[in-house]
Amino acid sequence: MTAPLSHLPLTGLRVVEFTHMVMGPTCGMVLADMGAEVIKVEPIEGDRTRHLLGAGSGFFPMFNRNKKSIAIDLHQPEGAALARRLAASADVVAENFRPGIMKKYGLDYASLSATNERLIYVSLKGFLPGPYEHRTALDEVVQMMGGLAYMTGRPGDPLRAGTSVNDIMGGMFGAIGALGALIQRGITGRGQEVQSALFENNVFLVGQHMMQYAITGKPAAPLPARDNPWAVYDVFTVRDGEQIFLAAVSDPQWDTFCDALGYADLKADASLRTNNDRVRVRPALLATLRERLAHRSAAELSALFERVGLPFAPIRKPEELYEDEHLNATGGLADITLTDGARAGETARTTLFPFTLDGQRLGVRLQPPRCGQHSSELAAALGYSADEIRALQSSAALG
Length: 399
What we know:
Elements: E1 14-18, H1 23-33, E2 37-42, H2 59-63, E3 67-71, H3 77-88, E4 92-95, H4 101-104, H5 109-113, E5 120-125, H6 139-145, H7 148-152, H8 165-188, E6 193-197, H9 198-205, H10 207-216, E7 232-237, E8 243-248, H11 251-261, H12 264-268, H13 275-280, H14 282-293, H15 298-308, E9 312-314, H16 325-329, E10 333-337, E11 347-351, E12 356-357, E13 360-361, H17 375-381, H18 386-394
Parallel strand pairs: 1-2, 1-4, 2-3, 4-5, 5-6
Antiparallel strand pairs: 7-8, 8-9, 10-11, 12-13
Helix pairs in contact: 1-8, 8-9
């Protein structure tokens, strides 16, 4: 369900984003979903993610809802001047280009804040200022150098996480910083620069493993090889080759587990009485459980574990989530209209933010925009005449 506009906390806030790919657009989407007017500045040919194939084909429609689009050629003086006028109208400017790019066009924080002390400027980068800041970063790059790929893969086989975790979370942290800066501006009347970075986000994600080493002196092992603190906490292959995650993480849960599955012998076994006892014999115990569970179906085990209140999870593929009863019952998915490619004009369902405000999910108010869809109206609102707009479009400074 879409929250009424009057209920959205950022209504009346203007955000201008000079962003591309995932990290920057995520930041803008957070603010847009909460009611801000977010204006996406694109090159004349459009954001590159409009035309990506394969794993990138979902980037633009996923991260650019609830935004307006203006297409500007920053390389032309007239285009850069228009962009500066647009940025001057903003409460928040967000960008995720290489260091130095925005300064070249007079769109950096120092230039813009000189005439607008209330401006909040969000820079989304690969690295915070320091020895690495001029390196080119990707989600894979920071996962590899930041310990996450090591923790995800098997020993000797580092593996990136299966989604753009640093891009998405880095954008979210940028938005969190912007929200904090907005509150501070309400107190002092002054804006500030907010910086968020992929590498530092990744280090935050593995901070618990760093802290484990600091406290115990023992390096954290990759997840597939770690010393598990619970005996029953694993994926089991069951009937017809289906897989399901099952867990019993306390002694009462172990008793429930045994009662529900009819394993009275295991419950009575003194060598399995406590969780630590079971952890000490975990390989043998898991082998026994795998043999006993092999003939049961995932659906049967799901129903049983749900009935008795034990943790469980069928192993799902992303596309299967479209049919998830909970997501569909709670309004976790919303229709959007695709803008580019062979399916332009068709609808698809996208995921919404995982929280509610006043009991309502934050929905889709504006469809992902066509490139330059709002160029003329935004330029007119900035004071450009119809003749000036036509001249900008004729010179391809405005799309």
